[in-house]
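FAQ: What does the model actually see?

It sees only this:
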Amino acid sequence: MRANYLIFQHVKVIRFLLLGLLLGTVPLSYLASGQMQKPNLPDPIKFLGKRENVMRASRAVLEQLGYVIELEDMQSGHFLTRPYEFVSGTITSSEIDKVAIKNDTMTGAWLRAHYVVDVQFEIVSTTETLVTVRTKMEALNRDINGVEKWEPLQSLGSVERRVLGKISMKLLGTEPNFKDNKSFWDKKPQQVPPVKKLPAE
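And it is asked to produce this:
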């Protein structure tokens, strides 16, 4: 009975995949990788340092990475960059798949993609600052009728981990371990050594 049940379940999965491929709801990458990609956004990191000092260091990191800061609110602790175009042309679709999940049921072609970086700085105490990095990703799709529309993408978390890692490098000289390790992410935000005060501008 157990063997018959397992065979029945296996047949159901195969039927689901075949139907999904016919309808276009299951991408071929699913069969190639063996599983669908899932978002893995990094948890916030708590630094020992005054918020204004952490924000100055983070602003320098964003500029070094080539981002242009459009919104800088030192009072509320918020940075927002201008849209950063990271790919365009014929390789757009494949490059998007490396950093985000797109709606593969869309018809037509993907032309270009961009994202904005959103960094939040929360005061935990007078000497502790919690830093959160998120992105908003979009891609331009042209359908078979020639109509172009920006479509939202779901970030996989690689861009956020890179930015947060560079901020950590700037403040500490070491980059946090961003491996896919549940035991790491289950921990509370880590405390790190105090941030050296930067010279006033």
